[in-house]
Fold this protein.
Amino acid sequence: MEDNNFGNGNNLINRKVGPLSKLSPLFFIFIALATVFFLYQIIGGSILYFLGADSEINSSNLTMIRIVMTFAQFMFILSPAILLAMLQENNVKETFRLKRPKISVLIFAIIGILVIQPFLQVYLYYQNELIFSLPFGKEAINQLKELFDMMESMTEKLVEAKSLPEFILVVIVIAVTPAICEEFLFRGLIFRNFEKIISATKAIFFTGLLFALFHFHPFNIIPLMVLGMFLTFVVYNSGSIYPAVICHFINNFISAFAVYWFGTESIGSQKMTGEEQVQFVLLGAVSFIIFIGVIFLIKKYSINKNEKVNVNEVLNNIPHANE
């Protein structure tokens, strides 16, 4: 059986398909995410529980939790994504865009992931300041604050390293593993299926949205959407998943290295003077402006120059700091 249609305009002729090829791409996306959620969150969580990681994270179980998390991501995120791709397309290389990227787009992608960091920090700082200072719904806000503090505490314990060998382990868990597993799931399987039924612009947006929701972190939804949309945009314009894997790694590595080098005292917990806030906001504004320039440069050197992709629509879908 052969399928000669592909929603993003690629001319894939005589492409073999698998036993799940007749499923609606939208339904297939639902099945993929439901499968990964069950395996990673339920089965993976159960493994941690039975290994004694149901109590508070401490020095006695920290290494074990990190190792199990790494195993769970490769086993319950990456493996199902590859298996489902084989059952649907029977062409893993094409589904995941396992090909050499356009170097110019790769370079601009790396620049983009670096320059957007200050803007995301500014956004998070003022978002949390706003949420936790609202004059109404004090009880709900306090519960949100407790949830926020608990999640931050757990993240800090997982990321914090007291030695170079421990930091290397943290990098593997926090940066290397998600960069591979999550990119194959979202920028590979999910994005490819969205492309079959909607325009590239909408596929980029919805892939980024699902990527953000998948992390179940209510306070990081907007930054994760920006990251997810940017990584998908990079994959589409480079023709390869590798730039997204590299950028995802860099993004997570920056966080891990910052904690290792500067400690767990984050900027969100510090009170800044008026002058410091002005400098902070200006840095974020410059960061965002440069990032927009990088977006257009990526589009300029895209492998899809002849494709009608609305870059302005993609940028309009990226939430701004005042939203």
User: Anything to note?
Assistant: Residues 99-317 form one domain.
